[in-house]
Design brief:
The complex is a heterodimer of chains A (about 475) and B (about 500). Chain A is built from 17 helices and 9 strands. In chain A, strands 1, 2, 3, 4, 5, 6, 7, 8 and 9 form a 9-stranded mixed beta sheet that branches. Chain B is elongated and about 80 Å long. Classes of the chains: A alpha/beta (about 475), B alpha/beta (about 500).
């Protein structure tokens, strides 16, 4: 087994060396005090002037919804208008001299996924990269007997090895990745999940891109797509959501040179830069999102690489809810960590990225939490004609709210449909139009995440994969 | 299939377009401020509606959705400027602002589209022809709905042509956006939107597409317009209590009326020139096997044909946005031939000649009975009526009783009263005798009704109480005339009297 790099063998290095960057402490004292004081003030004011507080809440929420809608439209416009992805032509890939290729480390954290192992190994072995330059680590938990047995049963190709992650708290994917990072040999490094199927030339494309780009580009995010988008209604909606995000939001962000909240897989790094950042936060359940922001705060940049990794969309509703809960909980963690010192965050990110951060991290969670409140009011108004609700919507606020309700929601529906079309998921366009049901699920997950943040902030609700079976041939 | 997923990096096109639009709009706005007395009656009505919406009044919501001949988008788009005064209050800012922004956007859109199609220097005469057209200027500086409609029509037509040519998603979205804008902005453009979708269906039926792409393209193209229409029905159900309320006036309009309607064949040389150019462009495109040109030509020739049909049914009034767009669309159809032309110089020269021809036709004297003649009084005339008549009517009714109310019916009534009428006057769009007597019990009530001609004939007061202007009703006694307005006193129903 490769010996870890000196000083970097601690998977919890970030939380120890730079605790201000870690979600180990969910809320700082200042944040707790602020939350308590604000809550008391709000409750007291609501008790004295309930309608005034209601109107203020509705007004603030409406302005937020309006700006959020316009922001998403602007990102979509940018995504379509500008070539924001790094494109590597096939000729450029073919022209790479194999002898000049750097060692590429691939980390694949796994836990209780023996059924995914054969397919994963086959997909990685099929990658077009010299075996002697490949450094694939299957990161298995020591007490995961099933997956270890599956790995032992396989004849691993050259360049593949198993790295055991000792059991310790927290039992999270980023902690496992840090273990792998310490033992990685490559100058470049990437992460894949157990169910991933990256395009075979992805590593070569990343090499070509890093060579072309300036040194401050320390990360490349590849596009994610599903190989089972039509398995059921849930996967169709999931595919539409991914299409909207990866085709109508991320490219726009990238074109602005802005911070990119990373996806959890197919992030390619300059390994040294990643080590300087002390790897991933073991306590953050969306360690990828957090890392993307830390990259930006330290002056680095992330770009989108035009290469796709195919993964499995979660087709089971209970597992989908767990996965989405974890993601949103991680967003809450990430927002709170980076907002510990908001002025410093503003200084380090700059105004534009500070706005992106607020909207894409905090804003998404906030909107999902608020949505049920407004849905309930809409049902009460349209279905039961509760005219007393008009007290909460004075003149211009009523108009703005009506605009957000109809035009805003339609905009998101339509963007989802456009995203499907852009990805050539033509048959999914009509399913994107039924997205409001999907939004209800997202809001449910958001409230679940909110509760879990306080009850069990580091709990990693594992997504079960391997539920997709390709249709039989013929 | 071509995809316009990616453009050269750092393209400044959108930024320049925004700047150009803002600069042009600012210029038009300054010019328009100096001609505030020319603000059209349409502009006044929409301004007042926007003001009422801002104040969250019932009449504002009713006016927004309650009539198919007064679509909602022009009022909604005025909302951001509504707090700064309307034609009834401080000045015509909302209407003027919207019309100059829409007009500037239309010119910039036209310029960019022609540039993409290789029109080169011929862009200038085309855009100048559109900009210098008397009706463009009148609508632009008069706060009319024309520039908004032109913007939507150009967006839809350019989108259609680009979609047929390169199957790009952006073109499809442009087409959809234009169709939605038109659906919510002008009733007489809805048949043109239907023609647009019919051509799209034709293209989808006979074009080559990937599996499932036809259906997906159709969804994307039609959904925004369908959404606008659906929302309109929903709003009528919620506000008026009847999802079909806003189209009732159209059904009643086919009844005979002694009052003037547009003549059935009132076409001007401009309309004939535009239609000929468009059909010629379509024919040439057909000969050359260019489907995009054929579709664009047919689309551009459609407005006069649709106007002919609507005028024959008596549901067209002037100035009709439908004919307003005919000239620019015809020029667009001709300019489409510059795309990929073997002899670009000749193509551009022809485009320039077409622009000059249409300009000449436009500035020629128009027949007096043309549809292009202005419909009714402008802002100045309305303000004059308001200043002269309202105080006299108020003095007249209050002389009989200090507790008097005058219901002023219809959208013209909104224009007459402005956004802040005296307390004696109550604007009403869905007048009901029983409700009025119940809500204003103890008051002496009056009803002020305008002569039912042209678009005013479709107001609810005329289809709820047909011929009330000529014959009164069981609930009314004739009082006096005030220009086109007739004042009735509301009385207890008389048995055997004129029936509504």
């Amino acid at each position: 087994m490769t010996q870890p790099a000196p000083g970097l063998d601690d998977p919890l290095a970030l939380s120890r060396a730079a605790p201000e960057w870690s979600a180990k402490t969910p809320l700082t004292r200042a944040q707790s005090a602020t939350a308590v004081i604000a809550s008391i003030a709000l409750i007291a004011t609501a008790a004295l002037r309930p309608w005034a507080v209601g109107r203020a809440f509705v007004f603030a929420a409406t302005v937020f919804y309006l700006l959020f809608t316009l922001y998403k439209l602007a990102l979509a416009r940018l995504s379509v208008a500008r070539a924001a992805e790094i494109r590597i032509a096939p000729g450029e890939v073919a022209a790479l001299d194999p002898a000049s290729l750097p060692v590429y480390s691939v980390l694949v954290p796994m836990y209780r996924e023996p059924e995914s192992l054969p397919g994963l190994v086959a997909a990685l072995a099929a990658m077009d990269y010299p075996a002697d330059r490949l450094d694939v680590q299957l990161l298995l938990e020591e007490d995961d007997a099933a997956t270890r047995a599956a790995a032992d049963a396989l004849t691993l190709p050259a360049g593949f090895r198993v790295t055991l992650v000792p059991p310790s708290f927290p039992r999270t994917k980023p902690k496992a990745c840090n273990v792998g990072l310490a033992r990685a040999r490559g100058a470049l490094l990437t992460i894949y999940d157990a169910e991933d199927r990256p395009e075979p030339d992805q590593l070569r494309k990343a090499v070509a891109a890093f060579r072309r780009l300036p040194e401050d580009v320390v990360c490349l995010q590849c596009k994610l797509n599903f190989y089972n988008p039509r398995q059921n209604l849930l996967t169709r909606w999931f595919a539409a959501e991914y299409a909207s995000w990866f085709d109508l939001s991320l490219p726009g962000l990238s074109s602005l040179g802005g911070m990119i909240p990373l996806g959890g897989t197919s992030n390619h790094f300059r390994a040294d830069a990643l080590r300087e950042l002390l790897g991933w936060d073991a306590y953050n359940v969306t360690e990828d999102c957090d890392l993307g922001i830390r990259i930006r705060r330290r002056g680095g940049r992330t770009r989108i690489l035009d290469s796709t990794t195919w993964e499995e969309a979660c087709a089971s509703l209970p597992y989908w809810i767990r996965q989405r809960t974890r993601w949103l909980k991680g967003y809450i963690q990430t927002w709170l960590v980076h907002m510990r010192r908001p002025l410093r965050l503003w200084r380090e990110l700059g105004t534009a990225d500070f706005v992106h951060f607020q909207v894409l991290i905090g804003g998404i969670v906030l909107s999902l939490l608020m949505n049920p409140v407004f849905w309930a009011m809409a049902v009460a108004w349209f279905g039961f004609r509760r005219t007393e609700l008009m007290e909460l919507f004075p003149g211009p606020v009523f108009l703005m709210s009506a605009f957000c309700l109809f035009a805003g929601n339609f905009t998101f529906l339509y963007l989802g449909a456009i995203g499907c079309y852009r990805r050539r998921y033509y048959d999914l366009v009509k399913y994107a139009l039924a997205a409001p049901v999907y939004w209800v699920l997202m809001s449910y997950s958001a409230w679940r995440a909110f509760g879990q943040f306080f009850s069990n902030p580091f709990h990693w609700e594992k997504t079960r994969h391997g539920l997709f079976r390709a249709p039989p041939a013929g | 299939m071509a995809s316009s997923a990616h453009r050269p990096p750092g393209s400044p096109g959108a930024g320049r377009a925004l700047l150009a639009t803002a600069a042009l709009a600012a210029l038009f706005f300054v010019i328009g401020l100096g001609r505030a007395d020319r603000l059209s009656a349409d502009g006044v009505v929409y301004d007042v509606v926007a003001r009422h919406l801002w104040l969250n009044t019932t009449i504002g919501r009713q006016a927004l959705v309650g009539a198919a001949v007064w679509p909602p988008l022009p009022a909604l788009l005025r909302l951001p400027a509504a707090p700064f005064g309307s034609a009834g209050d401080v000045g015509p800012y909302p209407s003027l602002l919207l019309s100059v922004i829409a007009g500037a956007a239309a010119l910039v859109l036209l310029w960019r589209a022609l540039g993409r199609w290789g029109a080169g220097w011929a862009r200038a005469p085309v855009v100048l022809a559109v900009a210098a057209h008397p009706f463009f200027l009148a609508e632009l500086l008069g706060g009319g709905v024309g520039p908004l409609v032109l913007c939507g029509a150009l967006l839809a037509a350019v989108g259609m042509a680009d979609w047929v040519a390169d199957r790009s998603l952006r073109a499809l979205v442009r087409l959809a956006a234009g169709a939605a804008l038109l659906t919510g902005s002008s009733l007489d453009l809805i048949p043109w939107v239907a023609a647009l979708f019919a051509l799209l269906l034709l293209d989808l039926a006979f074009g080559r597409f990937a599996r499932g792409q036809r259906g997906a393209a159709l969804w994307l193209a039609m959904l925004p317009a369908a959404g606008v229409a659906g929302l309109w029905f929903l709003a009528n159900w919620l506000i008026m209590g009847d999802p079909g309320y806003f189209v009732r006036g159209l059904r009643s309009h086919v009844a005979p009326s002694p009052f003037p309607r547009p003549a059935p064949f009132p076409f001007s040389p401009l309309d004939a020139a535009a239609a000929s150019l468009a059909l010629g462009a379509a024919a040439v495109a057909a000969v050359r096997g260019r489907r995009a040109g054929v579709f664009l030509g047919l689309l551009s020739a459609a407005p006069p044909a649709i106007a002919f049909a609507l005028a024959a049914r008596g549901v067209l009034w002037s100035p009709p946005p439908l004919l307003y767009i005919a000239g620019p669309l015809a020029l667009l159809a001709v300019a489409g031939h510059a795309r990929g032309a073997r002899r670009p110089g000749a193509a551009r020269a022809f485009v320039a000649a077409a622009a000059l021809t249409l300009t000449a036709a436009a500035v020629a004297r128009l027949p007096e009975r043309s549809l292009h003649a202005p419909e009714r009084a402008t802002f100045t005339a309305l303000a004059d009526q308001r200043g002269r008549w309202l105080p006299r009517i108020e003095a007249r009714v209050r002389a009989r009783s200090p507790f008097s109310k005058v219901f002023v019916a219809g959208y013209d009534g909104l224009a007459l009263l402005g956004a802040r009428p005296p307390d004696t006057f109550v604007p009403t769009l869905d007048f009901d005798f029983a409700a009025a007597e119940r809500d204003y019990a103890g008051n002496r009530l009056y009803l002020l009704v305008r002569r039912p001609e042209l678009r005013g004939a479709l107001d609810a007061i005329h289809w709820k109480y047909p011929r009330i202007y000529e014959l009164g009703s069981r609930h009314t006694l004739y009082d006096s005339d005030w220009g086109d307005w007739r004042l009735f006193e509301i009385v207890q129903p008389r048995p055997g009297g004129p029936r509504p």
